[in-house]
Amino acid sequence: MSQKELLKVNNLKQHFPIKGGILGRTVNHVKAVDDVTFDIYEGETLSVVGESGCGKSTTGRAILRLDEPTDGSIEFDGVDLLSLSRRDMRKKRKDLQVIFQDPYASLNPRQTVGKILTEAMAIQNAVPKEKRRERAIELLETVGLNADQIDRYPHEFSGGQRQRIGIARALSVDPKLIICDEAVSALDVSVQAQVLNLLKKLQREFNLTFLFIAHDLGVVRHISDRIIVMYLGKIVEIADKKSLFDNPQHPYTKALLSSIPTPDPEVKKERIILKGDVPSPINPPQGCRFHTRCPFATDICRQEVPELRNLDNMKEGHRAACHHIEKIAAEH
Amino acid sequence: MNSNQIDQANIKIKKAESPWKRSLKDFYKKLVKNKSALVGGYLILILIIIAIIGPYLTSIDPDHTEYSVKLQGPSGEHWFGTDHHGRDIFTRVIHGLGITMFIGFTATILGSLAGVIIGIISGYYGGKIDSVIMRLMDILLAFPGILLALALVSILEPSRANVIYAISIFAIPTFARIVRGSTLATKNLEYIDAMKALGASDLRIISKHIFPNILSPIIVQMSLFIANAVLTASGLSFLGMGEQPPSPELGALLSDGRDFMWEAGHIALFPGLVIMLIVLAFNVFGDGLRDALDPKMNKK
Q1: Which of A74, A87, B48, B260 is the most buried (most CB within 10 A)?
Q2: Interface size between A and B, measured as CB pairs under 8 A
Q3: Closest CA–CA distance from residue B36 to any residue of chain A (Å)
Q4: Can you tell me whether residue B282 is helix, strand or coil?
Q5: CB-CB under 8 Å, A102 with B197
Q6: Could you give the domains of chain A?
Q7: What residue in B sits closest to A96 (Cα-Cα)?
């Protein structure tokens, strides 16, 4: 695998203001994403997992500048996206595309499939006008739909087919990076597998890079090269797929992995059940954000924010943010 | 290669069958199912036809006075009778119908146009612009419609154009509110984000992706508002603030009959009935439209 970074996210912060009072002043912030740093290499699939509200979708939206991030930098292919003017950013959007979660809300119900695809090409002027329809047909076939479905409306398709249309729309401008925001979460399992396989095929064919946002670890295991685990706006662990599933270091990752059901009822495995709920991102806990629910938490966890660290028992590139990695490893 | 050519041919055939036509047909089918809407629709159609061609079919001048036949009840010669100047009420109602409906339509179109633009801007951009615009709309809404129109006309001066302006101004807040709400609901859908991610301009997103999807509530509101506008226009004329005599506007005809309610009730009765018919037709049609255009109703 080539190790050229396509996207570098540095200290990304996304704080949404909470307005209150009669005058509508900002009284507080929801710290949806708080100081997140990671790279995506060209041609790989990097997954971001975590429970609802941990900031994984917000990260994706911030990279696309659908919401303007509060702080940090996003470097794509050597260009700092956040410093681009609106006009330059519009042009740059050709290289970054997105596939959304809800196949029912992500297509304009008043446009035919052909119109959806040709409009995408028209916005970016990716294909000359006479060739757009031809290219749209080609794209439909690429994503496994029929050419004669081009004049149909979205409501005439099933959820899986609509998701394929969404994929075709993203592909229509020849992007380099596609952010899949829970792209298969709304589909049923058999369709999920088809769409995932399609994504893998397209990745090989067009040399695409994926940022795959998901909460389903089974899906993530199927598609990813590397995985980021997020908790309450921060990265708790980042590793290649094998290391993360075989040798998880952070207690939260361990808890998450232990929640995957095993198909064999004879296998007794240790289940780590977390107590309580995720704290509010408005006033996240001091120190390690996970300490309120962590079985290993001590005083240092309540005071100091842990850095992402790589230790001897971990592979290169595998890092976890926990004060007690050594202690936990020794106990097992 | 050969099968590819057949494919291409198939695509051409599919394209020839316009998708718009299909959705129009669907819409008509749903409308037909709703009997009251259909009756309302036909009634409106008949009223419009009468208003347009009616004046050419009657040879009598609506302003022609003939004192020898004044205050006569309905007869074979004067179907709706005559007024205190001996003018034929049937002819005047036919002419008045056109004037009243013209005012209603024009005012609604002008008002909805302005209201839609204001509402979309308010809903799409949000923030301070939204707050300022919506507070202004609240101020306009705080006045009863007829009072606002009355005030505006009395500031300007009574004339047909000013009546139209006055009614369209009081139409603005109703439309702006509905459009703002629909825009807010639509702009957060994922396909709008997808368009933004593709680099679409605000103008493109508003005109091609938001506007077509909020069209149905606008159409319904227009139909309902025409009834309101007709009523206000007649009301203004009735109060002497709209059409000036001898204009046969329906509200003015009603006003003519007011002094003779006991001796010659027919003078006020027929224009009143026609006003009622217009308002009823548009209200029933609007309600039917709402049902036919409601996506939740479509699913069953």
Answers
A1: A74
A2: 68
A3: 28
A4: helix
A5: no
A6: 5-89+205-331 (3.40.50.300)
A7: B197
For A123, other C-beta atoms within 10 Å of its C-beta total: 19
Provide, as residue numbers in chain A, all residues whose Cβ is less than 8 Å from the Cβ of B299: none
Pairing of strands A71-76, A96-99: unpaired
Cross-sheet strand order for the sheet of A79-80: A25-41, A5-20, A71-76, A79-80
The pairing of beta strand A71-76 with beta strand A5-20: antiparallel
pLDDT of residue B124: 93
Is the pLDDT score of B69 beyond 80? no
> Can the peptide bond before residue B246 be classed as cis, meaning omega within 30 degrees of 0?
yes
- As a whole number of angstroms, the distance between CA B159 and CA B165 comes to 10
Determine the length of chain B: 300
CB atoms within 10 A of CB B296: 7
Q: Which of B198, B201, B202, B209 to probe by mutation at the A interface, max A CB count within 10 Å? A: B198
B127 interfaces chain A, CB cutoff of 8 Å: no
**Using CB atoms, which residue from B11, B19, B204 is nearest to A147?**
B11
Q: A172: which residues sit within 8 A by CB, 6+ positions away?
A: A117, A120, A121, A126, A127, A135, A136, A139
| ipTM of the complex in this document | 0.86
- pLDDT single digits (tens) A58-84: 999 999 998 889 999 999 988 899 999
Q: Would the pLDDT of B273 be above 70? A: yes
d(CA B115, CA B109): 10
Domain with B217 in it:
33-59+86-298
Residue at B191 is within a domain: yes
Distance from CA of B214 to the nearest CA of A (A): 11
Q: Which of A61, A41, A111, A81 is nearest to A213 (CA)?
A: A61
Contacts of A272 (CB under 8 A, 6+ apart): A251, A254, A255, A258, A295
Split into its structural domains, chain B has a count of: 1
